[in-house]
């Protein structure tokens, strides 16, 4: 890491003092300084509670396989800030991060006080313009209506699902959360939606109707049929593809894959040909770290950034299958979570499977301490250990696990990033956003 890149990250880290601010005035001010780079390419905008990052990665992978120059903006990163901003699957170079931080750096005299996420989003928009991408795939950070990415004028919108998360910012009912996520729907722009509760679907459908936005709904307008282990058939409004497979693990990823294909069918494929071969190559080669990712075998280590009850339910379903496949296999869980999450509801899905729980923590102002987490997980049936750092949690799990056991790291993408750093020997420094 160069000194100038380190200094740029230090500046970005410092923007954490502004916290999380939902609104579009600041990002518009930043982008106006550069003659609105977000208007210089097509945009596919992807929101939802879970699966939006995976769907974004799949969408970008298919576009790249179709020889379309594509930019991908996602959050959060796991280890390196540069993961957030990619062109053609390649992370933004350190030197370009330095240049862009300098471009969007705001002096102490300015009344404009951008957050970390607003600055990172402006950097992504500008980088994509400089790299002359044809399509930018943007993952919403939080919510949608007031998310910094929502200054774009997309050619297609995907809302993967709606469930409880970030209630302090988005509301305490599914209808309220759906209203915020529906804020990315634009006038006349096709909208694809995945599986969701009827009340949330009704809110999104109403918003689409108000905006005159054509609605394409999973289970009604497009479907998938599982044809074998990890192989599925996609049937869309005008397109049909069989024999598709996805490199990402988990049955829920097949739904995300179908949503990605539907988004392309309703937007890019309306004017450009994307062949079945490109879809096959994109889905079979896509990489998305920290989502049911295997770190090692014997024992098997899996990390998954699930951090809300709906994601925990999908993770539990996958872990159940892994446990049943190996007789006498123990499940050892390493966990850390944000203190504002619904910890009890999250672990209600996972505790019935766990044999040992190791609570740990990261030096991050939003994460619960190991003591806080342990206190909220009191159970007489599952032994609970505490480790003061992810490094110590990993060491403890190694001592407990036999070669056929399963270790799952979950509860927070920040924890996943920290544990991956332990395995790779990289330096880890968490960021907000």
From TrEMBL:
InterPro entries linked to this entry: Folylpolyglutamate_synth, Mur-like_cat_sf, Mur_ligase_C, Mur_ligase_C_dom_sf, Mur_ligase_cen
Highest taxon in the source lineage: Bacteria
Domain Mur ligase C-terminal residues, every copy: 290-412
Enzyme Commission identifier(s): 6.3.2.12, 6.3.2.17
UniProt keywords, alphabetically: ATP-binding, Folate biosynthesis, Ligase, Magnesium, Metal-binding, Nucleotide-binding
Mur ligase central domain segment(s): 46-263
Signal peptide start and end residues: none
Catalysed reaction, written as an equation: (6S)-5,6,7,8-tetrahydrofolyl-(gamma-L-Glu)(n) + L-glutamate + ATP = (6S)-5,6,7,8-tetrahydrofolyl-(gamma-L-Glu)(n+1) + ADP + phosphate + H(+); 10-formyltetrahydrofolyl-(gamma-L-Glu)(n) + L-glutamate + ATP = 10-formyltetrahydrofolyl-(gamma-L-Glu)(n+1) + ADP + phosphate + H(+); 7,8-dihydropteroate + L-glutamate + ATP = 7,8-dihydrofolate + ADP + phosphate + H(+); (6R)-5,10-methylenetetrahydrofolyl-(gamma-L-Glu)(n) + L-glutamate + ATP = (6R)-5,10-methylenetetrahydrofolyl-(gamma-L-Glu)(n+1) + ADP + phosphate + H(+)
Hydrolase found in the keyword field: no
Pathway membership: Cofactor biosynthesis; tetrahydrofolate biosynthesis; 7,8-dihydrofolate from 2-amino-4-hydroxy-6-hydroxymethyl-7,8-dihydropteridine diphosphate and 4-aminobenzoate: step 2/2; Cofactor biosynthesis; tetrahydrofolylpolyglutamate biosynthesis
Class of enzymatic activity (EC top level): ligase
Family to which this protein belongs: Belongs to the folylpolyglutamate synthase family.
Role, per record: Functions in two distinct reactions of the de novo folate biosynthetic pathway. Catalyzes the addition of a glutamate residue to dihydropteroate (7,8-dihydropteroate or H2Pte) to form dihydrofolate (7,8-dihydrofolate monoglutamate or H2Pte-Glu). Also catalyzes successive additions of L-glutamate to tetrahydrofolate or 10-formyltetrahydrofolate or 5,10-methylenetetrahydrofolate, leading to folylpolyglutamate derivatives.
NCBIfam families associated with the record: folC
Protein name: Dihydrofolate synthase/folylpolyglutamate synthase
Organism: Candidatus Nitronereus thalassa
């Amino acid at each position: 890491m160069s000194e100038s890149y380190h200094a740029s990250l230090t500046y970005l880290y410092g923007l954490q003092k502004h916290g999380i601010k939902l609104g579009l005035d600041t990002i518009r001010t930043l982008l106006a300084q550069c003659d609105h780079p977000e208007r210089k390419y097509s945009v596919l905008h992807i929101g939802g509670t879970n699966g939006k990052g995976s769907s974004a990665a799949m969408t970008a992978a298919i576009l790249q396989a179709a020889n379309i120059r594509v930019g991908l903006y996602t959050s959060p990163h796991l280890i390196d800030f540069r993961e957030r901003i990619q062109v053609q699957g390649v992370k933004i170079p350190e030197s370009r991060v330095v240049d862009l931080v300098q471009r969007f750096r705001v002096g102490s005299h300015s009344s404009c006080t951008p957050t970390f996420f607003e600055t990172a989003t402006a950097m992504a928009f500008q980088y994509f313009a400089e790299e002359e991408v044809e399509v930018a795939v943007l993952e919403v950070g939080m919510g949608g209506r007031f998310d910094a990415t929502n200054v774009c004028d997309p050619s297609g919108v995907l809302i993967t699902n709606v469930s409880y998360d970030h209630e302090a910012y988005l509301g305490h009912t599914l209808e309220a959360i759906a209203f915020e996520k529906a804020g990315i729907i634009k006038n006349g722009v096709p909208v694809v939606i995945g599986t969701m509760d009827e009340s949330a679907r009704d809110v999104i459908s109403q918003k689409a109707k108000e905006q005159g936005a054509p609605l394409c709904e999973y289970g009604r307008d497009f479907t998938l049929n599982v044809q074998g282990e990890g192989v599925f058939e996609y049937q869309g409004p005008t397109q049909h593809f069989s024999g598709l497979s996805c490199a990402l693990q988990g049955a829920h990823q097949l739904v995300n894959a179908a949503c990605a294909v539907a988004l392309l069918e309703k937007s890019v494929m309306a004017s450009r040909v994307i062949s079945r071969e490109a879809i096959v190559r994109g889905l079979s080669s896509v990489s998305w770290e920290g989502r049911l990712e295997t770190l090692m075998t014997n024992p098997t280590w899996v990390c998954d950034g699930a951090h809300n009850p709906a994601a925990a339910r999908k993770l539990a379903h996958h872990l159940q299958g892994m446990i049943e496949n190996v007789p006498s296999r123990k499940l050892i869980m390493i966990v850390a979570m944000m203190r504002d999450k619904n910890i009890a509801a999250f672990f209600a899905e996972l505790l019935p499977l766990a044999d040992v729980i190791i609570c740990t923590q990261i030096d991050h102002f939003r994460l619960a301490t190991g003591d806080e987490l342990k206190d909220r997980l009191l159970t007489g049936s599952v032994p609970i250990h505490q480790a003061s750092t992810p490094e110590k949690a990993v060491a403890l799990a190694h001592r407990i696990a036999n070669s056929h056991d399963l270790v799952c790291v979950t509860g927070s993408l920040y924890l996943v990033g920290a544990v991956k750093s332990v395995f790779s020997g990289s330096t880890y420094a968490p960021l907000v956003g």
